[in-house]
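**User:** Hello, beginner here. Are you able to go through the protein record under this note? It all follows right here:
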Amino acid sequence: MMRTLVIMLAGLLLLYLAPGGLCQGCAGPHTYLQSYIGVTYTVVDGVNQSFNDSICVRVPQGSFFFDVMEVAQKRDFGRFRFKYTLSVWGAYITSVQGLEADDNQHTYWQLLSNGIPLKLGAGCYTVSHGERLEVRFSKYSLQGTGQPEDKE
């Protein structure tokens, strides 16, 4: 009786985890079933204006902004390489094309979709077909925080 129960549970577990089984997301990517979407990804130095590079990439539907960044980096490392750190809020982009965000200089990498700043991080924002994604090197102000504001 116990042996039959163990065999039955093992069979259900295999069915659950197997590609095309009950749990579509657990067994890894199913490229033969996935549909792909096209997005445009741009990296911009909005502070020094030293670069403005774009690439069109295809990613599986349901991909995140971070996935797009990884695909672009694999296709053209020189123009789309990036670094990040992990925090409790997810991946924080620290560098693109070797240009580092710097708290002392009040610079950071801003994420945008169709020109609108995102409220979610790269690892949380799900991209859509035809979307124009951008990572822009930007400067922030300390105005209204009680901290002195840079006057450059």
